[in-house]
């Protein structure tokens, strides 16, 4: 079992609070200035998982640090979110939120499941995370988010022994905002970056995965402006992808210097708005 680890002696965080935190120039400042942090379902789910794991009561301590720009740098890579956080001491602290990446064979199963349904390919190519992605992963025995504290090791070089400390909490909030801005960062944490994931989906699509009904399915969704289209029973919980997502499914086609897909994109969006 992976255990949460902490470095440094077991002092209370109050020990550090006797000193004023040192300001940071050009630190990463949370976009949210008050209230909740996280706008998308996936960033909200990430923070909700932390709360469910019993650390939610300590997360709020990191909002001040996140909004004050105390996080110097942050990187989301396969298996770890790492950051440098400036506290009251001269030397910044190193913080890490770990998450085991999916094995290669597990990713193959995920990609097969995604490629089998054109809905997922269209949503991902449009930069969205389908709101039932967790169900897709569950069908192949995986979970997008950690299922217990043992799956989310956290450590920081500060002297506070509690987990998460305010430095880790600040990193978690800023990571949630990164997930808002780039949902593929969440999948990268699990081991696949955007380019690799989309290339694999395109390869499967070109090889014929899910193609018998793909075009019919997409046309049914995007070309009936102003007329609601009943979703199949298993898709009733899904929100519609952008109306021009179909264009991202097409290969590049240029006429002169113009990309035909970009020429058609405003028309697709206008058709989706329906008659005035």
Report on this model:
The protein has 276 residues and is of the alpha+beta class. It contains eleven helices and six strands. It has a four-stranded antiparallel beta sheet. Strands 5-6 form a two-stranded antiparallel ribbon. Helix 2 packs antiparallel against helix 7 and helix 4 crosses helix 9. The radius of gyration is 22 Å and the shape is globular. The N terminus is likely disordered.
Strand-residue fraction? 5-15%
Residues in helices, as a percent range: 40-55%
Uncertain spans, ≥5 residues at pLDDT below 50?
1-18, 209-239
Main sheet strand line-up: 1-2-3-4
Structural class, from helix and strand content?
Answer: alpha+beta
Spatial gap, N to C terminus:
60 Å
Query: Can you write the helix and strand succession as a string?
Result: HHHEEEHHHEHHHHEEH
Notable features of this structure?
276 residues; two-stranded antiparallel sheet; globular; 4-stranded antiparallel beta sheet; 6 strands; single chain; alpha+beta
Topology:
Blueprint: H1 14-17, H2 41-59, H3 63-68, E1 71-77, E2 80-85, E3 93-98, H4 104-115, H5 118-125, H6 133-139, E4 154-156, H7 166-181, H8 184-189, H9 194-206, H10 214-222, E5 254-255, E6 258-259, H11 260-273
Helix pairs in contact: 2-7, 4-9
Summarize the structure.
By secondary structure, this protein is α+β, with helices and mostly antiparallel strands. It has 11 helices and 6 strands.
